Amino acid sequence: MSKKILIIEDEQTLVKALEQTLKDSGYETEVAIDGEEGWDKINSFQPDLILLDLILPKMDGFSLLKKMRENNLTVKMPVVVMTNLSDVGDRVKSMGAVQCLIKSDLSVKDIEGVIREKLR
Q: In whole angstroms, how large is the CA radius of gyration of the chain?
C-alpha cells in the first residue's frame, strides 16, 4: 500500500510540482490550501506524513501544529514544516515537527528525499 502525504500549502506552483513529483514516486497525495481545510483532511485522509506551510489563510501552520499535538488521533503524525521564515526551526521542532525546511533553499526533489527519509 502506498504511503499517504498531505500537502498543506497555499502556493499553487509549489503544490502542483510537489503533487506531481510525489505521485510519480508512488505516493498517494491530498492537498489543502488553508489551515482549516488541512485540519479536515488530516482527519479524513489520515496521512502518513504532512508537509505544512506556516503562513496559511484561515488557520496558520503554528495553530494547526498545536491543534494536532493536543489531539490523541494526530499527536504522533510526522509533520515536516516548509517555510520561508528563517528563524522558526527550533520553535516548530519544540512543537513536534520532525523537520523544518526553508523552501527557498530546496528543490522539489530535495523535499521528496526528506519525505522518503522520514517515512523509513
A: 13
Q: Where are the beta strands (DSSP E) in the chain?
A: 4-8, 28-32, 49-53, 79-83, 99-102
- CA dist., res. 43 & res. 25, Å (int): 24
Grid cell locating 99: 523537520
- At 33 the pLDDT is 97
| Amino acid identity at 55 | I
- Percentage of residues in the chain having pLDDT higher than 70: 99
β-bridge pairing 28-32 and 4-8: parallel
Between 3.40.50.1980, 3.40.50.1010, 3.40.50.2300, 3.40.50.720, what CATH number should domain 4-118 receive?
3.40.50.2300
- The string of DSSP codes covering 95-117 is TT-SEEEEGGG--HHHHHHHHHH
Q: In this predicted model, which residue has the larger pLDDT, 86 or 4? A: 4
Average model confidence (pLDDT) for the chain?
95
